[in-house]
Specification:
The protein has about 100 residues and is of the alpha+beta class. Helix content is about 25%, strand content about 40%. Strands 5-2-4-3-7 form a 5-stranded mixed beta sheet, covered by helices on one side. The longest helix is centred in the N-terminal third of the chain and has 12 residues.
């Protein structure tokens, strides 16, 4: 993990996904899709049954990832996705499940 350059055009979003998103392969599918799009960050289960993610990358890639999260993998049922800008100096070099 490196420090994010202040002049970088990298967007960082914090995302919460609710619905039937745990126990259906949501996190591993998210990791695969993030790798495909070149998005970095992480994904994890939350205690309330939702899934949380931190997405980082160029705006168009983060936007495509966010669009995919509204649908998720075939066995998931996404009811709601909320996101907001996350301010961090951390620059992630890959996407992982934590």
């Amino acid at each position: 993990m490196k420090k994010l350059d202040k002049n970088s055009r990298v967007e960082t979003l914090s995302v919460q996904i609710s619905g039937r998103v745990q126990g259906v392969g949501f996190r591993i599918a998210t990791v695969r899709h993030a790798h495909m799009l070149g998005v970095t960050g992480w994904v994890r289960n939350a205690n309330d049954g939702s899934v949380e993610a931190l997405l980082q990358g160029p705006h168009d890639q983060v936007d495509r990832m966010l669009s995919w999260l509204h649908v998720g993998p075939p066995n998931a049922r996404v009811d709601e996705v909320s996101s907001h800008d996350a301010f961090t100096e951390r620059h992630f070099d890959h996407f992982e499940q934590i």
